[in-house]
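SEVERITY: medium
COMPONENT: batch folding queue
REPORTER: lab tech (J.R.)

DESCRIPTION
The queue accepted two submissions in a row. Attaching both inputs and their returned structure tokens so the on-call engineer can compare them side by side.

ATTACHMENT 1
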Amino acid sequence: MSKMNKVIADEYVYNTYFVGSSRMYRHIQPSLFDSLNNGKTRSFNLSYSGTKPPETYHFLKHFIEECTDNTKYIFLELSVISDLAEVNRNTLRAKYCLDFPTYKTAFMSCLQNKRYEAAWNYTISYLSRVWKMGMLESIWKFDGKTHYPQALGPRGDGFYGLEQEMADAGRADSTFIKRLDNFFADTTTLTKRYEKTIKEYKKNKSFRPATPANVAQIQGLIQQAERKGIHLILVLKPRNPGLLSLYNALPDNNKIDMCDPVKYPEFYLAKYTFDVGHFNGEGAELFTRALVDEFQQFSNKNR
């Protein structure tokens, strides 16, 4: 909410946006990205922790509709439809995004890769939304104010590195310290992800197949963006094996691979790590610089 309020207050002045989970929110620095692009981009990081498909698809569909002619690029984190646990299926966050098209994508994608429990939970959540079960009370209590002021980050551009937030929180929040300590107590968790990713790239396919429902949804968003003159770019992020088959199923002029462990072995080093899924401050800068290089090559090829 706070991020969209900022974009609206700024009258959609940005021409580049980043959308995804904490792996975009914590890793992509708009100020550095724009500086390295010599002012050709003015970007804002719309990502936030735990924001994954189908929620990102629902958000992006409406965001593209609202974008002005100023918007040129949207970077979307590539991901599968997330699992919906029974404990979360009746939450307002689970239900608000489940209009019928979004529900259908989530249900069919889970069904197609045999995640039957998740498909059932999406069905329960969708029906609860249709019948407004438990939603009226939640909506009534919602005051429209964000409870996550950190979402905008210190620069107000939507980026907030984990190390920076840990330093700002100090001893008031030991969660960050525990995450850091837990990783460095056993860094083999990252090594295992690296090895798993190496195997996928050798086979040129992932252990998780691309589901037709998810591919169709992404292609629909690409086409919707094109109609508005926006280039939607799917980003295959590092440290998250299982997405190569989905990446391969998408058009070449709408994707960037940041996951390749041969091309980017440094992304799998402990010295750039906060926890197994996230970079530290130095790693986030490294990732942003590499993304700029890829984007510039990508732009030259797609002129």
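ATTACHMENT 2
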Amino acid sequence: MTGLTPAGFIATRQSDFLKLIRDDFDARLVALGFQAVPDYKRDVFVGNVTEIMSFLLGQGSEVDQAIYDAWSVGNAGGLQLDNLALIVNVRRDEATKGTVTLLCTGTDGTEITQGKIVQGGGTAGTARWVISEDVVIGAVTTGQVNVVAIAEESGPIVALATEIDTIVTLVDGWTSVTNTADANPGRAREEDDELRAKRQQALQSAGAGSTNAIRAALLNLDFIVGAAVLDNKLPVVVIKEGITIAEHGIAAVVAPASMTTAQQQEVVEAIYFKLGGGTETSGTESATVTKDDGRSETIRHSFSVDTDVNLDWTLQMEAGFVPADVEDALLELTQDLFLTFGPGSTVFPLLLCALAATVDGIADVTTLLLNGSTSPATHTVLELPVLGTFVVA
């Protein structure tokens, strides 16, 4: 089967076209009443015509395959890969030219104008470098002047110290030139493989920087009982739920508030490795992580403090039951529910009443007070709701 299939695009080959053409031609001849079909090996004209037709159709099929492949990052190359990278706002790095600082010596007052050329370094010492600005020998230091030159050709041209020593564009009073330090080589145009890797990295960074990704990384730590991550999309500092968050920054809050130094280090590393580039972290606690280049970065976060939610039940019992009969079962269900709460969770009375409805012996909940109120118990992300007193009557 050729063409677009569930497995992708399968191009029709030249040999397939040749068979299709000849089989169809034979079938048409038979339908018209001919008793014999061509012998394509002996009939040079018909054989050649069908070969040419299949060849041209095969070329068109190859073009179709190339167009289809151009939509796959793994198969695309050149301009087609550039277009796929641009979809996620990634651009290919073009070739750049190297730079070097030159020491020019000669007679004081001699002007060396922009565009003058010197030579040295590169293949066989023939690389050429163009003076980038007008300078005057002796303007700062007697008998010499420093000036930056740019490679005439793009790409990684290497010029070690003292290799640039030839003045190509002669100027009266300018007697010698050298580079006291190695040149900064340019960069070759980014290859397709490099662009694919950069595109993939950009996609990973975007996903890594999301608050959901950071929260998931924190919850993957076995000692974390709850986590929340707030973000600030504005270019100014904001305060959310009692936390001051830097512009375009995030604030991670974790529980429990008591943990070892090693555990806190795991927390900041989990945040760092899921953090988008250039994103500032905010919080009352901090620790440092060591980056791949050996430098340190401070990562901030906050702890969520346990906040008691006291429950006072008044139950209507089924016949033959008293509150003491159901207290343990209701307590166990309530404890399990509180384990699901994280920083900033709201505890709703209706959710607790739904638990009571599953306990044998409870006919109805007459009243349920949360911290003395019938309203939901709300919290900021700096508060982790935990079960306080538990009274059943």
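NOTES FROM REPORTER
The chain has a mean pLDDT of 89.
No errors were logged for either attachment.
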